[in-house]
Each structure stands twice: as C-alpha cells, then as structure tokens.
Amino acid sequence: MNDAKSESVEPRSKLRFVPLILFVLLAVLFLLRLFAGDASRIPSALIGKPAPDFNLPSLSGLKDIPGLKTNDLRKGHVSVINIFASWCAPCRQEHPILMALSKDPELRANGVEIYGLSYKDEPENAKSFLQDDGNPFQRIGMDPAGRVAIEFGVYGVPETFIITEEGKINYKFIGPLTPSAMTTILIPEIRKAVKSIIKTP
Question: CA 162 to CA 82: how far, in whole Å?
Fold first, then answer.
C-alpha cells in the first residue's frame, strides 16, 4: 500500500515544477529576442512605398506652424517626420537631437524639412512641450486618435521617418534618437535620400 501511495505522489510532485520550467523557457526566449539586434533597424513593410494619404490639422496656439498633409511630402524635397507626444519620456529625451537636426546647416542648404506628428496628445500639452523645449518642426499635424500613425506602421513613440522628394518612405528609425544614432544612422540616411534627388535627371 505504501509503495502504491509513493508512486502516485511522485508524479504529482514532479508536476509542481512544470510552471517554473515554462516560466524559465519564456524568460530565456524574451531575453534572446531582447538582445537579438538593434530595434531601430526593424524592417518596415512600407519602405519604398508611398506615405499614406492624410490631412492633419495644425496645433492651435503655435504661430505660423501649419498642419501636415500627404501633399507636403511630395514637393521635391526630403522630409523627416518625427512621431512624438508630450507624455512620452523618450520623446523628451530625444528632443534636443531634433532641435540640433533642425539647425543643421547642411540639411537646411539641401532643403530638408522636419515635420512633427503629434500622437494621441492633448493640444495644450503638446503646445506647452514645444514652447518650453523649443520647436524643431516646420509643420505639425495633430493625430489625436493615432490613425495616421497606425497607417505609417508605427509601433510606438517616438519613431522617425525619412521621406523622399516624391513622398515615398525611405527609412524608419524606431525609438529615441541619440547623438550617436543621429550622426551614424539618421544623417547618413538623409544624405542618401538627398543624393537620390541630385542623381535624378
């Protein structure tokens, strides 16, 4: 009798460890995905395709800053679109990078324009953010429902897109820009887009 009881208890005691084993396996899988590569280099299905059609209103209260629409991306110059929100801590972290980018003499000489897309934000909060920390954007589109961002394939804020002179998505950077990312990734990608204009007959 005792042997039969011990045999029935033993399988049950082994089953206790199944949740722990599953948890460890999931944790290992998560860590492998986390360190699998640079998240900013995740490919986008929209690269090489036209930017989605949209027409977003301006941020009221900011003088001389118009809204943003698809046609603004098809005017013969390279555009940089930054998806941001005042409630997004990484957006605030990268903001000085965008300010520096907006003042870059080479980009300005080549007609590169920097636009903002305000993602799921309250207008007053977005306005206060830009008034306090500076406005790097020549146009700002308000996307309160986040629908345009979804059409761009945005994972989350911040994200930055480089758009060709004919309105096609040329590059996508996921996450906050850093000084290193700006000099080694973003500016070289902008230069590539600018050179493609020069090469076009």
Answer: 9
